[in-house]
Amino acid sequence: MTIYNLGSINADHVYSVPHLPGPGETLAADSLNIGLGGKGTNQSVAAARAGSHVVHIGAVGADGAWARERIAGYGVNVDHVATVQGPTGHAIINVDAGGENAIVLLKGANFAFDPALVEAALAHAGVGDVLLLQNETAHQAEAARIARSKGVRVVYSAAPFSVEAVKAVLPHVDLLAMNEIEAAQLSEALGTTPEALEVPETLITQGAKGAVWRAASGERHVVASFSVTPKDTTAAGDTFAGYFAAACEQGLAVPEAMRLAAGAAALKVTRAGAADAIPTRAEVEAFIAAQE
């Protein structure tokens, strides 16, 4: 079985700052690190590090060969990562002393590839496979429609939040994932709670408060977060989503998959960076065992 991921690829410019800047404020950064990121990349790396076979679908610019190579280095298949005109997507990430962040994105190549790339990548997908999606690339709804028509499980992270994007993708989604802020935005925009939507499953991550999974049948599971001292919360939600999707694809029951994902996210936030800082399955299992 395979996890396909139509996902963004970004160069992350991470600035360590004493606090997140306010409107009109000029703030001196303490340091700068440039690394691999993008919600899609983060989820692909997380799923691969959790032990699943992952195929990434996306694009970089001519300046992004390094990103493609690094993704492949984490065990992700990049045969369907195209090189297009224009810049690779990038993010400007401010991280404060408490590990909280504020992010500005440039779409770049993530919105500059042909839909035929998606069709080709999913040509051999079928029942038992998974498609991950986030709101950082073009052709999300079309990819979800193609995948669903083949019996592929569609997991959509509604981030960055856009009600239009959610409405377009939702008819083809099996699992809708979001954090508590995105869930509140969705509730306000649609006038209903995520749990009331006609989607088989919802997953809401709540940072230090853990995560909640609900099924349309009424089944519900909650996982508490692990107590850690955060260094950088960037990619924590993506790490959770990628690990959770991989664990479920590998046959773990939802409670066990959530605990593994919570451990991965907790260990991630103790490290600076995004995709490059996502822990391996062995590291996560050792971390969870130590907590017990």
TrEMBL record:
Cite the binding residues for ATP: N179, T205, Q206, G207, A208, K209, G210, G237, D238
Extract the Pfam families matched here.
Answer: PfkB
Name all Carbohydrate kinase PfkB domain ranges.
6-280
User: What's the record's note on cofactor binding?
Assistant: Requires a divalent cation, most likely magnesium in vivo, as an electrophilic catalyst to aid phosphoryl group transfer. It is the chelate of the metal and the nucleotide that is the actual substrate.
- Quote the pathway field: Carbohydrate metabolism; D-ribose degradation; D-ribose 5-phosphate from beta-D-ribopyranose: step 2/2
The annotated subunit structure for this chain is: Homodimer.
Q: Which superkingdom heads the taxonomic lineage of this protein's source?
A: Bacteria
UniProt binding sites for K(+): D232, T234, K268, R271, G273
List of catalytic residues = D238
The organism named in the record is Pseudoruegeria aquimaris
Documented EC number(s): 2.7.1.15
Location(s), subcellular: Cytoplasm
First-tier enzyme category under EC: transferase
Protein name per the record: Ribokinase
Q: What does this protein do?
A: Catalyzes the phosphorylation of ribose at O-5 in a reaction requiring ATP and magnesium. The resulting D-ribose-5-phosphate can then be used either for sythesis of nucleotides, histidine, and tryptophan, or as a component of the pentose phosphate pathway.
Similarity comment:
Belongs to the carbohydrate kinase PfkB family. Ribokinase subfamily.
Q: Which GO terms describe its biological process?
A: D-ribose catabolic process
Q: A Gene Ontology CC term for this entry?
A: cytoplasm
